[in-house]
Design goal:
alpha+beta, Aldehyde Oxidoreductase, domain 3, 3 domains, six-stranded mixed beta sheet, three-stranded antiparallel beta sheet, 11 strands, transmembrane, membrane
């Protein structure tokens, strides 16, 4: 896990790839400008055959064309961002900003523009006067870049039209969330009870800035706790918002008679353990992925959009994530040695994830029978994969809430009966 957010920021920065492409274009143009293709060379039939004046006119035309294309690409990208924000969820924007295809396409266009414009400094001009000599190989590459740009433009239109499709958006969110579950959700030392609580003599370590907790990396704090014979409890969970100066970590020793912990001695370890940024990220935050999928359902159920089928599709993707979580140990992570707990990282339990996945959708879709039945299917799948009776009890409680919502929201008895029957069947399956 990265210790800083620089890598995550660079992945979503649209300027990184184009900047690298500009530098590469300038270096390539400088190298090719120094290469002369002699008569009789195998490459000679492939190089540009026109005069220096023809080459300058062509480079000017390529530069002007690429400026228009870049404006078109940026316009299409902004339209996609606006559409995804208003139609799906504002939290989906990160997906489009981090799209490698968008970044590479923009890089090709910018590189072509810079390469052609930079060529005007050398093609047909020498020592302040016109000349007939010019780097033919370098001009030939400008033509090749123009052709590549046109191919990339067609592919970009194809890609962006698919990228804004709701199915593609939801699959992308599901895939990223499943990757976080597999690689970043802790399995070692996970507990949902008997957690060490800070005693009255515990000393707080204040948050070093306001923002969202993006990652928790226990190793630095665990080393510091061992070195200074401390127990440390991290207050916020991944994805939660903290304020600068409020307690972020509690430190304590075994008894009140022991020397008080030295906050300054572990300050660096706390900063390495808890990374705070201005936005939530998907690096360790499973709840953020679930939030995005639930947002899509809630947005689809709003009167402005009124698209229950999209809400049902979103629930199908939610069921994949929720069933995977139900089969795993969930809760807080407690690490230590020699039978003593050293570091506590608070985490979310199954109750939180089930409520996050279904709560708002249940409340917004309580008058739509098909949405309620999709909720019941999602809960049924989660109940099937639950590890223990406690997890099944959580699922059963939410099934009862769906049945209650149906009775309150569905007006016609003909529509209500199948939902209630479905809910009671799921309840029997989960509680047997």
């Amino acid at each position: 896990m990265r210790q800083t957010g620089t890598g995550d920021y660079l992945k979503g920065a649209l300027w990184v790839y184009p900047t690298a492409a500009v530098l590469l274009a300038l270096v390539t143009g400088s190298v090719l400008s120094s290469i002369t293709i002699p008569d009789g060379s195998p490459l000679e039939p492939l190089v540009f055959k026109g005069t220096a004046a023809d080459a300058r006119v062509m480079l000017i035309g390529i530069s002007g064309t690429m400026m228009t294309v870049i404006a078109l690409v940026l316009g299409l990208t902004l339209v996609a961002l606006q559409l995804s924000s208003t139609q799906f969820s504002p939290r989906i924007l990160r997906t489009f900003l981090r799209d490698r295809v968008n970044q590479v396409v923009l890089s090709v266009f910018v590189a072509t523009f810079v390469y052609s414009t930079a060529g005007l400094y050398t093609v047909g001009v020498g020592r302040g006067a016109t000349t007939d000599d010019y780097p033919r190989l370098a001009v030939t590459l400008a033509i090749a870049l123009l052709v590549a740009s046109m191919v990339v433009l067609v592919y970009f239109v194809h890609h962006i039209s698919h990228a804004i499709q709701i199915d593609q958006v939801m699959v992308g969110v599901e895939t990223k969330t499943m990757r976080v579950i597999e690689h970043d959700l802790p399995t070692e030392g996970v507990r949902d009870h008997d957690l060490p609580e800070p005693p009255p003599w515990a000393v707080p370590v204040p948050a070093y800035r306001s923002g969202y907790v993006q990652t928790l990396q226990p190793a630095p704090l665990l080393r510091a706790a061992r070195l200074h014979d401390l127990t440390a409890s991290v207050v916020p969970m991944v994805g939660e918002h903290v304020l600068a100066g409020e307690p972020m970590v509690w430190l304590w020793r075994v008894t009140a008679g022991d020397a008080a912990p030295d906050v300054a001695a572990v300050q660096d370890a706390v900063h390495e353990c808890v990374r705070i940024g201005f936005e939530r990220t998907t690096e360790q935050d499973v709840a953020f992925g679930m939030r995005q999928l639930a947002d899509i359902s809630v947005k689809a159920l709003s009167p402005a959009i009124n698209d229950p089928y999209t809400a049902i599709q979103s629930l199908e993707h939610i069921s994949v994530v929720l069933a995977t979580l139900a089969a795993r140990p969930l809760g807080s992570q407690v690490l230590g040695d020699d039978g003593r707990d050293r570091v506590v990282l608070h985490g979310r339990d199954l109750e939180y994830y089930v409520e996050l996945a279904t709560g708002q959708i249940r409340r917004y879709g309580r008058d739509e029978p098909r949405v309620l039945q999709a909720l019941l299917r999602t809960l049924h799948r989660a109940g099937y994969f639950c590890r223990d009776d406690a997890g099944r009890d959580v699922v059963a409680r939410h099934v009862r809430l769906v049945i209650e919502a149906a009775r309150d929201g569905v007006v016609q008895a003909t529509d209500l009966a199948p939902v209630v029957a479905h809910g009671e069947a799921v309840l029997r399956e989960v509680t047997r």
